[in-house]
């Protein structure tokens, strides 16, 4: 049985405005994933060497992995939210959001520090 059939088996169709809002949120997560992927690729391709050899590659790989993870979890979040709306339950919290926000902040700080140290 396909996932759309399983989704529609429980509850009732939510107001289309809420489904469209859920879809827009999904697309925002996908845009974030694409930005992380582009950031990782751009860092590896265009950034100057950092203070620690290999640090640029590690940070670029972490950005790409964050993009892959965000993309993979975006659909799961959409599906859980849609199911909750169908069953008149509260929407689930975005579990990946804290990891994503803190992770990007740590990586950005690491790049900043490594660039500054390399330019001293």
What does this structure look like?
The protein has one domain (15-118). By secondary structure, the protein is mainly alpha-helical. The mean pLDDT is 91. The protein is built from four helices and no strands. The protein has helices spanning 3-8, 16-46, 55-86, 96-118.
Tags for this model:
single chain; 4 helices; transmembrane helix; DUF202 domain-containing protein; membrane; IM_YidH-like; 120 residues; mainly alpha
Shape: elongated
Query: What share of the residues lie within helices?
Result: over 70%
Q: Structural class, from helix and strand content? A: mainly alpha
Q: From the alpha carbons, calculate the radius of gyration and give it in angstroms.
A: 19 Å
Averaged pLDDT, please? 91
Count up the domains: 1
Q: What can be said about the biggest beta sheet?
A: none
Q: Kindly state the number of beta strands.
A: 0
Number of separate helices: 4
Beta-strand residue fraction: under 5%
Distance between the termini: 61 Å
Work out the oligomeric state of the chains in this entry.
single chain
Main location: membrane
Organism: Actinophytocola xinjiangensis
Keywords: Cell membrane, Membrane, Transmembrane, Transmembrane helix
Subcellular location: Cell membrane
